[in-house]
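Priority: low. Protein: Transporter substrate-binding domain-containing protein. Input follows.
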Amino acid sequence: MGKLKLMLVMLIASVLMLAACGKDDDEKSTGSAGDGDAGYDLVKKGKFTYAASGVYKPFSFEENGELTGFDIEIGKALAEKMDLEPNPVTNPFETILQGLVGKKFDAIIGSMAYTKERAKQADFTEPYYYSGGMVFVAKDNDEIKNPDDLKGKKIGVVAQSTYEPPAKELTDDVQYYTSDVVALKDLTVKGRLDGVITSDVVGFEAIDNGFEVKEVGKPMWVEQASIAVHKDNPELTNALDEALKAIIDDGTYKEISDKWFGRDLLDIDLEGVELLE
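Result:
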């Protein structure tokens, strides 16, 4: 009888252990309220994994072997508000949306502008900054005074960016790059490029860092850089919107923006401005 009781106890213990393991597996895949996951799907339990190109200084770039920049710090601040560990990763911009759709990461915080076309593949939060699409040329180039002067010329853009379509409207001679910084640098090499279309923020930052380039005219449009999230994860989108509002309200956002740009990138007069959609 003693052996029978012992076997029965061992059997019950085994069943309870299997049930506990099953529960752990469920929590790893879906998250649970109170452990920082708040019920939304995450690629890694307890971590907020967000992607940027890593070659878009000052928004995301590597320094001393670590990812840093405005986008990276915004992601860290949002993760903190959501009680998650920040886990920034890199992915080439031209395939970053496909990476999100394939659930390689939880979100894109990589200066991706909201567009109706992109919204077919991902959900977007409220904008976390505004920037304008602007033409830049070499500092000694006095021939190109407005975007129309680039018709038929060689224009540099990042592939799959919002700057590609207007470049194609102006010319058939489009040079593709994986980094706006490299494209702007090529403007200073005689005969390589006639112009580059990129963010005004990035162009002005390049000028501040000694690039011999200059802007042409005013921004052609203003785009809304937003956080892209997988369409199957609306809870995470809502949580990010709440966290974004929180870091704006408590001054964290302005502190990060002032650090990298000396101004608040959300402080812009949008009246009468064409928003890219």
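The domain at 131-222 is CATH 3.40.190.10 (D-Maltodextrin-Binding Protein; domain 2). Residues 3-9, 15-35 have pLDDT under 50 and may be disordered.
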